[in-house]
Amino acid sequence: MIHEILPINKYQGNSNSKQFDFDFYIENEKQLNVYFYDENNVKTLLEYNIDYSINEFRNKDGSYIIFPLETSKHEILKENQKIVLELTLPLAQETQYNNSSLLNLEALEYSFDYLTRLIQILSRKLSLCLKASEFSEVQPDELLQDIINANGEAKNSADNALKTKSEIVEIFEDILALKEYIISIALKPDNLTTFAEPDGTLHSPKYNLFDIIQKDHILTHEESFGLERLGEY
């Protein structure tokens, strides 16, 4: 007899647990897939007797695994990591029934149980598939293609946003560089409280830096040179 169960058990890490239960019947290690999901949700199929061990086989109520083993490259499951235990069976029915006056009820029950477990596995996989309403005009394969296209457009939009962000950062860096240049010009000795003539004579300006100076005539070379030294024309 097989109870109505999901042929899968999922666990979130807590940086402490090493024992993980599964609720379904298995006959050997080949009927159990154990998957590790890292913090980026990357999936890895773990190896029996290297990454994990199985406590018991042929128990109708299931058993548990120990993960990780000392031989595993993985550490104790962290809070942002997950582990999944999944029932897996060959899609075949290999039990043979011969003509006989006696019906082997044990063999018959085994076959029915095996088929039931297969149905549970398929039911689980179908529950993860895209479904369309009976009255939907969009077929599942068309819906999947729409999702793929939307995902591509979203990726292109994200790439363009990153490009725009990079351009903004470059502009901001240019502005900062210009600001530093302006400050360096303003702090030059020529723009402070004194300036020197070509012969080395120091003069104190009569005006403050950036004062507006108005003249009623065209400046001579000497006047323009002097005002330039003050920082204004």
Output the keywords.
233 residues; alpha+beta; four-stranded antiparallel sheet; three-stranded antiparallel sheet; 3 helices
Give me a quick take on this structure.
It is built from three helices and nine strands. It has 233 residues and is an alpha+beta fold.
Could you describe the 3D structure shown?
It is elongated, with a radius of gyration of 39 Å. The model has no long low-confidence stretch (mean pLDDT 79). The chain has 3 helices and 9 strands; from the N terminus they run βββββββααββα. Strand 3 and strand 4 form a beta hairpin. By secondary structure, it is α+β, with helices and mostly antiparallel strands. Strands 1-7-3-4 form a 4-stranded antiparallel β-sheet, with no helix packed on it. It has a 3-stranded antiparallel β-sheet with strand order 2-6-5, with no helix packed on it. The chain has a two-stranded antiparallel ribbon with strand order 8-9.
Shape: elongated
Summarize model confidence as the mean pLDDT. Answer: 79
Kindly state the percentage of residues in helix.
Answer: 25-40%
Q: CA-to-CA gap between the ends?
A: 101 Å
Tell me what portion of residues adopts beta-strand conformation. 5-15%
Count of strand segments? 9
Return residue spans where pLDDT drops below 50 for at least 5 consecutive residues: none
SSE map:
Layout: E1 8-12, E2 19-22, E3 32-37, E4 43-45, E5 53-54, E6 63-66, E7 82-87, H1 105-127, H2 140-186, E8 195-196, E9 202-203, H3 221-230
Antiparallel strand pairs: 1-7, 2-6, 3-4, 3-7, 5-6, 8-9
